[in-house]
Amino acid sequence: MIIQDTMPATVLAVGRLMAGTAGESRRSAHLFDLHSRGSHPEFLHARCGTAMPYDHLEWIPVGSGMPCERCLGLTGSAEQTRLPRPSRGV
Q1: Which top-level group of life is the source organism from (predicted)?
Q2: Within 10 Å of residue 47's Cβ, how many Cβ atoms?
Q3: What is the pTM assigned to this prediction?
Q4: What CA–CA distance (Å, rounded) separates 20 from 2?
Q5: Is residue 32 within 8 Å of 13, Cβ to Cβ?
Q6: DSSP strand pairing (30-35 vs 43-45)
Q7: What is the pLDDT of residues 38-71, one digit of tens each?
Q8: Model confidence over 18-29: pLDDT tens digits?
Q9: How far apart are CA 65 and CA 84, in angstroms?
Q10: Residue 77 CA neighbour count, 13 Å, CB half
Q11: Long-range contacts, 1-9 (Cβ 8 Å, 24+)
């Protein structure tokens, strides 16, 4: 049973254009913040800003497909601690 109060306001989903709607080079996997609304817009905007027609998207499991580098770069929080690079001995 799903309790309405526990449903997150936004869900992170991975999607790409369906085969036949674009060339393979344009079918990279993008990250989408989906909002829990009853209807869907005509176009969805990926985290990188790319607008894609909702009817041409296929939803894929995490780790599938070639990832969009711009979407991946925008996944982390700005508050995350960055570890220093190990020194390179010569």
Answers
A1: Bacteria
A2: 17
A3: 0.69
A4: 36
A5: yes
A6: unpaired
A7: 566 789 999 999 999 999 999 999 888 899 999 8
A8: 999 988 888 999
A9: 30
A10: 3
A11: 7/36, 8/36, 9/35, 9/36
- Whether residue 42 contacts residue 29, with contact meaning beta carbons closer than 8 Å, is answered with no
Tokens of 4: 């309405």
Question: Which pair of structure tokens corresponds to residue 82?
Answer: 């960055």
Unique residue bearing structure tokens 């005509």: 42
Nearest to 68 by CA among 43, 35, 31: 31
Query: Hey, what amino acid is at 27?
Result: R
Are 31 and 75 in contact, with CB atoms under 8 Å apart? yes
